[in-house]
Amino acid sequence: MTNQLPALGSLPATLAALPAVTVVCGHYGVGKTNFSINLAIDAARTGRQVTLIDMDVVNPYFRSSDYADLVEAAGVKLIAPDYAGTALDTPVLSGAIEAAIDDAWAHPDRLLVIDAGGDDVGATALGRVSAHIAQGPYAFLYVVNGCREQTRTPQEAAELLPDIERQARLRATALVNNTHLARFTDADVVESGVAFAEEVSSLLDMPVLAHTVPHFGPLAPAGVTLAADSEEAALVRTISARHASAPAYLVQIYVRTPWERDQ
Question: Are 191 and 158 within 8 A, CB to CB?
Fold first, then answer.
């Protein structure tokens, strides 16, 4: 087992190698927006030119566009529908999205992260630009969380994906395990999530690219490592040692409820 602990802001190799156009989707409430923000910010820190597109028209409270200052300060360009950041869920998809897709393909040092809406309803907006996405190489990451009400079993998580794919008009290419219980997350929750994701992977015959480990402490600069004897550090080491093909990914909790943001 390795004793080396990845620092905050460090992307595992499986995510650092994502193609230029990467779609992040999943059932409502799995935490895909927080994952998308971490992915975009951490990829930018590796030197890639990153654009994050907010296509979440399902939930007015958990959208990438709510964190525009955060992502733009990290060097990430944000593209959002005209009504993002409001309670209006009417999608306004401009030609900027297709232009961003073409730009990402044309420059190998770039990464376009598309934060799509939750479940099949949110995937419908993605379907409006899916024909363009399908013209070139892309990754479609299906984020799963074994602690969400409608995906508490691997079978439920696997059964939801075909509807998402049908509405998105794209095929998923890999899984990301983001199992957590917000601030009630502990080692048992994270470890049960690993087993959950592996079963979903088996049911869908689809690889898991990473298992997230949430860092619920204060936001810290990139490069900061956790105390070696912390529970988070132990989880990262254990997961990375046991699952080399799907390593641990230490993520910060950027996305918070409105009442948490005011604290």
Answer: no
Task: For tokens 């709510």, name the residue.
Answer: 66
Rounded Cα distance, 231 and 186, in Å: 8
Beta strands in 64-145 (DSSP E): 77-79, 110-118, 139-144
Q: For residue 41, what are the contacts with CB-CB under 8 A and spacing of at least 6? A: 9, 50, 70, 71, 74, 76
**Residue 7: count of CB within 10 angstroms of its CB:** 14
DSSP 8-state symbol, 248: E
Write out the two tokens for 21: 């156009």
Q: What is the pLDDT of residues 12-46, one digit of tens each?
A: 999 999 999 999 999 888 999 999 999 999 999 99
Kindly give, in sequence order, each residue whose CB lies less than 8 Å from that of residue 8, ignoring residues fewer than 6 positions away: 215, 220, 221, 222, 223, 224, 225, 226, 250, 252
Q: How far is C-alpha 45 from the chain's CA centre?
A: 16
Instruction: Please list, in sequence order, all residues whose beta carbon lies within 8 angstroms of the beta carbon of residue 114, skipping any fewer than 6 positions away.
Output: 21, 22, 23, 24, 53, 55, 126, 133
**Beta-sheet strand order (sheet of 248-252):** 77-79, 49-55, 110-118, 21-26, 139-144, 174-177, 208-215, 248-252
Q: How many CA atoms lie within 13 A of 197 on its CB side?
A: 30
For 245-251, what is the mean pLDDT? 88
- Arithmetic mean of pLDDT over the chain: 84
